[in-house]
Specification:
It holds the Pfam family SBP_bac_8. With 390 residues, the protein is α/β, with parallel strands linked by helices. It has 14 helices and twelve strands.
Length: 390
Amino acid sequence: MRRTRKIVPLALLALAVAACAPSTGPDAPSSATSAEQPLPGPSIDASLDLDALVAAAKKEGGLLVYDSSGDIEEVAKAFTAKYGIPMEGVKSDTPQTAEKMTREHAAGNVTIDAAMYEDGGVLVGQLIPQGVARTWVPADLKDQIPAENQNPLLALSKATVFAYNTKLSPGGCPIKNVWDLTEPEWAGKLVMQDPLGKPTVLSFFTQLDAHGNQALEQAYQAKYGKPLQTQEKSAAYEWVKRISANKPVLTGSDEDISAAVGAPNATDKKIGFMSISKFRNNEDKGYAQATCEGMAPFVGFSYPKYVAIAAKSKHPNAAKLYVHFIMTEEGVKHEIGEGGVSGNSTVKPLVTPAGLSDWKGQLFHTDPAGLLGDLRNRQTVSDFWRVNHG
């Protein structure tokens, strides 16, 4: 286990871009764009001849796609097998991907053709408005993609959940309420990625402040039998303060979290705040872990993963073909194999993760209209976490 503290220069730079955007109230979803700089609309070909696109893509050679998940390697294999076009999939943390794409664009030497992108705030607040990346929606799939998923283009939604060791706690998750994790008995027993290096966790905090305060207040009332009293700006900030002060173990990867919680040799009950993709370790490594089913007011949060094309891609048709592929079950199944929801409404979930039977009802969901607000408020919540975690 290691304690990490990562500084994300790109996110800080992007905050300057978004700083002029108007603020919103604590319980209202933030606007996705500012009035001064609306998000450019997606590119949609008037008609799409898929065979012609394949032929054009083959003439360009191969393509390179970055993703925060190692699943992109399986997507690449499937893409190449289907179209005969060499594709390389590279796992890269979201902040590093954004920084590399920005530098390549400025230098005019673009190697990344497309990216699967979890940090929607930087995508809509910097990469797309500055012309580094663009959204392309396949015309033949447009009617299968809900309008709210089209700009930016939502490829899939994943989830980060509170998980426990089913062998050490055979009767179910030892915590029943998110406020339990703020109690002394759970000090040092929550294992999670350091929010300062994990944009999705920071966005979860800002989204909680935007539209999760009522649920947190109700959960507090249910646990303690009295209303929450706080000197912080909201219930969300009070919860984040108490969580950060309760000495969570911070790591740099979900794999470390999964090992700490569910490994066969684990003897200490811990709660992991980790991606559902790590539930694959149950089968692959003999781990024993499941979602904290029934936890109030949520068992975790869903987060969007978008797909965007580099504006100066040297293989634009191959990049488009990749976008088309990932928006179908044949392509996205490699990303949602351990659980997740496609941005294409006709693609049904493939797997129900352990303890997460109701995706819609059990999770706190990211509001896509609040992406720019996430970016604008990120430094504030980062500083708040840093001060209280010590």
